[in-house]
C-alpha cells in the first residue's frame, strides 16, 4: 500500500490538495458566521468531508491519469476542486432515461 502511494502521479496529489484547499477555505470563512450558526467542530461528522473530498478529487485525477490523459498541475488542481460537483452530476444522470432532449428551433 505504501509503495502505491509513493508512485502516484503528481497530478493526483495536486487534485487531492485542490479538494483539501476548498474545505480549508470553508473552514477559514466560519468566523464570518454568527456564533449561533457556526457548526459544532467537536462533532466528528463535521470533519468527514475533509477526508472524503480530497480522496474524491485525487481519485478522479487518478482516473484521468490511468486513462492516459496528461494533466498539468493547474488542471489537476481544477479537477480536485470540481470533483464533488462532477461526481454529483454523474450520480444524478440516468442513462436509462430515454426522454428526448427538445431544443428550440432558433437554438
Task: Show the helix and strand layout.
Elements: H1 2-6, H2 10-28, H3 44-66, H4 73-92
Helix pairs in contact: 2-3, 2-4, 3-4
Q: Summary?
A:
The chain is mainly alpha-helical.
Describe this entry's structure for a reader.
It is a single chain. The protein has one domain. The protein is 63% helix and 0% strand. The chain contains four helices and no strands. Helix 2 runs antiparallel to helix 3 and helix 2 packs across helix 4. The N and C termini lie far apart (52 Å). The model has no long low-confidence stretch (mean pLDDT 87).
For the structure shown, list the relevant keywords.
extended; 107 residues; mainly alpha; 4 helices; 63% helix
**How many domains is the backbone divided into?**
1
Distance from first to last alpha carbon: 52 Å
Taking pLDDT < 50 over at least 5 consecutive residues as the criterion, the unreliable ranges are none
Number of strand elements: 0
Our Rg estimate from Cα atoms comes to 18 Å
Strand content: under 5%
Based on Cα principal axes, name the global outline. Answer: extended
Q: Major beta sheet, specifics? A: none
Average pLDDT, all residues: 87
Helix content: 55-70%
The tally of helices reads 4
Could you give the order of the helices and strands? HHHH
Amino acid at each position: 500500500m505504501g509503495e502505491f502511494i509513493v508512485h502516484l502521479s503528481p497530478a493526483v496529489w495536486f487534485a487531492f490538495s485542490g479538494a483539501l484547499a476548498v474545505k480549508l477555505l470553508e473552514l477559514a470563512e466560519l468566523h464570518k458566521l454568527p456564533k449561533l450558526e457556526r457548526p459544532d467542530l467537536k462533532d466528528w461528522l463535521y470533519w468527514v468531508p475533509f477526508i472524503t473530498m480530497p480522496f474524491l478529487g485525487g481519485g478522479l485525477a487518478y482516473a484521468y491519469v490511468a486513462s492516459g490523459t496528461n494533466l498539468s498541475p493547474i488542471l489537476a488542481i481544477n479537477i480536485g476542486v470540481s470533483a464533488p460537483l462532477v461526481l454529483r452530476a454523474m450520480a444524478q444522470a440516468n442513462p436509462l432515461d430515454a426522454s428526448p432532449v427538445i431544443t428550440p428551433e432558433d437554438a
